[in-house]
Amino acid sequence: FGLLQTASPDEGQLGLMFETQPIVLRQMIMTDSAGQITTVTFENIQQDRVLDASLFEFKNPRVGGNRPRRR
Questions:
Q1: Low-confidence ranges of the chain (pLDDT < 70)
Q2: In the chain, count of helices (H) and strands (E)?
Q3: Maximum distance among all alpha carbons in the chain?
């Protein structure tokens, strides 16, 4: 299965590979606008696990924290 932005096809592509029984995402293949390919393969997939919601919170490193401000 592949995705292509039709308005700007030169910006890149995303390919998705699935297992069929059960349907599970196994691999993503991304091609950027320069033609560089990045492949992510999912292995040892564990289903029906309960994950803490904090794993999905985005903490912006530019807001708050103890980092000194630039002048």
A1: 1-4, 64-71
A2: 0, 4
A3: 57
